[in-house]
Amino acid sequence: MIGIAAPLGYAAYLSFFQDRMIGGNVFVGFDNYRRALGDELFRAGLWRVLLFLLVQVPVMLGLALVAALAVDSGRLRKPGLFRIGIFVPYAVPAVVASLMWGYLYGDRFGLVGQIGDLLHVDMPDFLGSSWMLASIGNVVTWEYVGYNMLILYAALRTVPHELYEAAEMDGAGEFRKAWSIKLPAVRSALVLATVFSIIGTFQLFNEPNVMQSLAPGVISTSYTPNMYAYNLAFNGQQFNYSAAVAVVLGGVTAIVAYAVQIRSMRKEQGK
Amino acid sequence: MPPVRTRSRRRLLALVPAAALALALTACGSGGGSGSGGGSADPAAALDTPATITFWTWAPNLDKTVALFEQKYPKIKVNIVNAGQSATEYTKLQTAVKAGSGGPDVVQVEYFALPELALSKRLVNLKDFGAAGLESKFTPSAWSQVSVGGGVYAVPQDTGPMAMFYNKRILDELGLQPPKTWAEFEAAAVKIKESDPKRFITSIDPGDAGGMDSLMWQAGSRPFQQKDATSVAVNLQDPGAKKVSDLWSSLLSRKLVDAAPGWTNEWWQAMGSGQYAMWLTGAWAPGNIASTLPDSAKDWRAAPMPQWSAGENVSAEQGGSAVAVPSTSKNKAAAAAFAIWLDSDPQAVRSLNENGLFPASSELLKDQAFLDKPLASLGGQQANQVFASSSAAVGQGWQYLPYQVYANSVFKDTVGQGLTGDLGAGLTAWQKRIADYGNQQGFKVTAP
C-alpha cells in the first residue's frame, strides 16, 4: 500500500513548491495549480486527447467487438490463426510500432510515397498537421484491437452453450443470437475495455513522442498532456509544475473514467 | 535525434501518469553542490596517483584516444560510458549532481548547454585545476564559449565552423558554381527547382534550433545575451535575425527549400538521391556523409558559406562540444588533468581528429599536414583549408542563454510550426516562450 501511495504523495507534495534557477526552492501553495488551469498549452493538449478519445476509442472497440464475435461464431476456417494474427501487434513494443508506421507513412520514400508514385496520385501527407492525429489513431488502433478483442472474447466464452441451443430451438439465427445473447453478455467487459482505453488515451505518449522525430513541426512538446508533463520536467527542469500538471491530468482521467463507469452501471441496473 | 524512450501504456490503472512517478524519483534530494573529495589540485601529481574516472560521452571512437592516455598514465583508468546524446545526457547529469552521487567525473557538454550547467554550479571551475593558461591553445570562439562569468568550465574538444556542402554532380549538370553570396544562393535555388520540381537547394529542420542559431550568428545577430548573473536579454528580431528570416521565409514560401526534419531515414535518402543539392552545416559533417552515403566521394564537396555582402568572410559555429568536470566528482584533479590532456595534448588532438572530430585546437588548425590532407569522403578535396578558414572567420560575441536547453526544446513549438511561410512570426513566438520561462525562473529578462 505504501509502495503505491508514496510516489503519488510525493508528486502531490512536489506540486506545492517551485524550484527556480534564481531564488531556489520555495513553497508556493496552489500557484502551480492555478497556472495549470489557465495554461493554454495544457488545455490544447487535453482537447486533443479528448477528440482522439471520442473518435479512436469507439472505432477500436467496434473493430475489437466484430473480431471477437467473428472468432466466437465458429464459422472462421482458422480461428486460432485469426486470433493470433490480430493479437500479435499488441506484443510489438509501442515504440517499435510507431517507428515502423512512421516509416510507412513517409510521403517520399515510405510505403505511402511509393504507392502514390506507382498510381501517379498525390497521397495525403500522413505526417502533416491535418492528418497526424488520425495517423496516430491508426497506430494505436492497430496495437490494441487484439488486446481488446481478447477481453471481449473471454467474456463471450463464459456464455453457457445451452443458451445458444435454446435460442436455436426458438428459431434464432446467428445475428439474432449475437444481438440478444452475445452483446448483453459482453456488456461489462466492454465497459472495462472502455475504461482502460480512456485511461490509455489520456496517457498518450509513446506514439506521438516517437513520431515527433519524423515531424517536429507538427508534434509540439505539449502535443498531449503527458508529453507536456514530461517535457516540462526533463527539458525545462520544471519538476514542480510538471507534478501539478500530472496531478490535474490524473484527476481529469479519474473523473472521466469514473463517470463512464457509473453511467454504464446505472444503465445496466435500470434494465 | 530526439531521444526515444520506452514506456508501456494501458497496462495498469494508475491514476497519475508515469511521468509524475519518474519525476518524483528524479527530483529527490536537492543540494549536493560542491563535493568534498578532490585530492590534490596539482595535475601532475593527480596523474601519478592511482584512480578510476568515469567519462560520459557519445562521441564515436573516443576509446582510441583514451587508450593513448592510459598508455601514457597507466595509474589512471578511464571508464567510457555513453549516457545518451545531448539533452538526454544533460538531464541525467542534472539528476545525478542534484542527488550528489552517481554522476561521472568527466562529461561531454555541447557549448550551448554549458552556461546553464556552469551557472547552476553543476560544473567545476577548471581555473582551479590548471586550465587558466590554456587559452592560446584553442580557437578564440571555442575559448569564449567555455568561459562563463569569469570562470573556465570546460576544455573545448571539437568545433563546427560552418561550411556549405554541395552536390557537385547537380551543380555541374546545371552549370552552376557554388554560390558566394546569399543572393547567388537564392538564384541557384530557383535554377535547381526549375530543373526538377522534386529538387530543393537544401532543407531546413523544424526541430533544430541549432541550425537556425548558426544562420543568425553568421548574419551578425546576437539574440541571446547574459548581462549579469540574474539578467538576460533576448532579441530574435535584431537586423541579423531579420535578414535570415526574410530570406528563408521567401525560400520556404516559394518551396525552394524543403521544411523537413534532418537525420531521418527519409532525409538521408533525399540527400543520397540528389533531392537536396546542399547542406549548410558544421565541419564535422564529412564523417557523417561518408558513413551514411557510401558514394559521397563522387558527389559531395565543401565550399565557404555564402556571404551577406560580396567579398566578406564571416562564418559561425554549428555544434561542437567541450569536456567538463561535474561538481560531484570524487576525483576532480585527475578528472581535470585527463580532460586537459584529452583536448590539448598534440598527440591526443590529432587522434581525435583522425576519429572524426573537427579540432578546437588552434595549433592543429595551423598544421600544414592537417591543412593539406585530402579528405577521401569529399573526393580527395583538401577541405580542411575551407574549414580552417571558416574557423578563423567565426563572428565574435555570440552567447547562449543560461537556459538554452529549454529554449532549444521549444523551438519546434514555435518556429518549427511556422515553417510553411512566415519565419519572423515564429521567431517572435519563440522569443515570447523564452522570455516567459526566464521570468518564471527568476531572471530579469529584457526583450524588445
UniProtKB/TrEMBL annotation, chain B:
SUPFAM superfamilies, per the entry: Periplasmic binding protein-like II (SSF53850)
InterPro entries the record matches: Bact_solute-bd_prot1 (IPR050490), SBP (IPR006059), TAT_signal (IPR006311)
Keyword check for Signal: yes
Signal peptide: 1-29
Keywords: Signal
Stored Gene3D superfamilies: Periplasmic binding protein-like II
Pfam families noted in UniProt: SBP_bac_1
PANTHER family membership: ARABINOSE-BINDING PROTEIN-RELATED, BLR3389 PROTEIN
Protein name per UniProt: Sugar ABC transporter substrate-binding protein
Source organism of this protein record: Kitasatospora aureofaciens
Lineage, top ranks: Bacteria, Bacillati, Actinomycetota, Actinomycetes, Kitasatosporales
